[in-house]
Design a protein that fits this description.
Length: 289
């Protein structure tokens, strides 16, 4: 199929892009195009204007300031995956990035584009929630920041006004010596996950768990923190039985269902993936048996 007719715009500065957004009706932003282009060709989207961000200076790049990593919205997923700091210091993000589509997808797909598309099964949406990212947004009233936990307003609906765009993601660097695991189940390699589990663990010198983060993707319209399981794990000695007890709490989630995947199946996947991810994250802790 062919896309519907639209007017193409290629701004070169952020100010030009924002001006176009403010003045044009029914406009869509083009970042990596891995979501928008299929939607156009399959006639799921009918914009009158497409604003290409690929020529806008300053929207791509990775910089570290103290214990925070700033990732420009137009940074390609492959560039972030290959970044040495991400590989060494943020393994949860590296693991999730490696599961996004295929190499060609990651070569073009952008960080901001994936987060704004906000598919609840997308790896980046889930892992940025787990990592406590902050979304940097630009608009006619100036910049503002939104916590990733508050960024989704609902199913595939980001907290963005029609005349705003995402400029960067600020990512707090996890503490040294933490354990991490990102697991997902999909029909085929490269597909969106039916369910994913992102887990981070930190441990006291005594061996007890200091903190646990468990985020499930694909189970609902937005990523879900498994808060009861996190509370159960905190302060406890990590054992297989403890991880099984924590994972069993995934049976209580209000999972969505559709014509292909029933809710009970998503809950069963969530339980299995949570248990496996907890085990893998614990094994990745320094000195773990």
């Amino acid at each position: 199929m062919k896309p519907p007719d639209f007017t193409y715009h290629a701004p070169e500065t952020l100010e030009q892009a924002l001006s176009l957004l403010a003045s044009l009706d029914n406009a869509r932003l083009l970042a990596g195009g891995q979501s928008l282009m299929p939607m156009l060709t399959m006639r799921f989207a009918f914009p009158d204007h497409v604003i290409d961000l690929n020529r806008v200076a300053g929207l791509a790049g990775i910089t570290q300031t103290g214990d925070t990593l700033r990732i420009g919205a137009m940074t390609r997923q492959r560039d972030l995956l290959d970044h040495p700091f991400v590989q060494q210091k943020i393994p949860l993000l590296a693991q999730a990035l490696a599961l996004i589509g295929h190499r060609q997808t990651r070569n073009r797909g952008t960080i901001g584009g994936s987060l704004c598309h906000l598919d609840p099964a997308a790896e980046l949406v889930s892992v940025m929630t787990a990592l406590g990212a902050t979304i940097e947004i630009a608009g006619p009233n100036g910049p503002r920041d939104v916590a990733m936990a508050d960024f989704p307003l609902g199913y595939m609906t980001p907290s963005l006004a029609p005349d705003e765009l995402v400029t960067a993601v600020h990512l707090p660097v996890p503490p040294p010596g933490h354990g991490a695991s990102f697991l997902e189940f999909s029909r085929r390699h490269g597909d969106f996950a039916i369910v994913s589990a992102a887990v981070m663990l930190t441990r006291h010198s005594s061996g007890h768990l200091a903190d646990a983060v468990i985020t499930l993707g694909g189970v609902g319209p937005v990523p879900l923190r498994l808060a009861k399981a996190e509370a159960l794990l905190a302060g406890q000695t990590p054992t297989p039985d403890l991880f099984t007890q924590a994972a069993c709490l995934a049976r209580e989630i209000d999972a969505m269902e559709d014509a292909q995947i029933p809710a009970w199946y998503r809950r069963r996947l969530a339980e299995s993936l949570t248990r496996r991810a907890l085990t893998a994250a614990h094994q990745s802790l320094p000195g773990a048996a």
